[in-house]
Amino acid sequence: MPKDTEPQKPGETLVDLKRHSEDLKARIEEQRRKSAMPVNSSLGDPKIDAENADGRRDLKEDDED
Asked: How far, in Å, CA of 65 to CA of 1, rounded?
């Protein structure tokens, strides 16, 4: 019968396993935050927002009349 989990190593206690689990969860969360960067890194940049405020860089809508 296949096992879904690795057998417990000798000397590892429940406290050790919980600590390893928390470390792994923290590393996973850190990687998620790193990869959650916005596509445009200038989003929320006040200087860029001020330059774009007049609408010069807005895309024009296509007229389908």
From this structure: 68
